[in-house]
Amino acid sequence: MVTIGMNYKVLPGKEETFEKAFRSVLVVMAEMEGHSKTNLFKDIDDLQSYLIVSDWSSEEAFNGFIQSDKFRNVVNWGKENILAGRPSHTVYKQ
Q: What SS3 class is residue 39?
């Protein structure tokens, strides 16, 4: 089991768009083998900062998800001009 922390910074005014896209990502995650659960957290001191915490059976299962066509089809950050910078991911192994 691994937990993945995914840090995202969105452009001001794009919070609702990001949150809506996240809901679409949750649907895709639910279909992926190895996914256990995911939560979205918002920084109350920086409303454009988000943390997604996701539990997977393995790091390979998570990598398969983020490299999948299903993931790419629901999330197009560049096209929507949502992110203020490149997201960072941290893997926490248990």
A: strand
Q: Which domains can be identified in the chain, with CATH numbers?
A: 2-93 (3.30.70.100)
Cα–Cα distances (Å) from 27 to 6, 32, 42, in that order, read 17, 9, 20
Given phi > 0 = left and psi -120 to 50 = alpha, else beta, which region is 24?
alpha
Q: What is the dihedral of CA 43, 11, 25, 33, to 10 degrees?
A: -70
pLDDT given at position 64? 92
Find out whether 90 and 9 touch, Cβ atoms under 8 Å. Answer: no
Summarised one tens digit per residue, pLDDT across range 6-23 is 999 999 999 999 999 899
Residues whose CB is less than 8 angstroms from the CB of residue 10 and which lie 6 or more positions away in sequence, other chains included: 17, 18, 48, 50, 82, 83, 84
The HSE-up count of residue 41 (CA atoms within 13 Å, CB side) is: 10
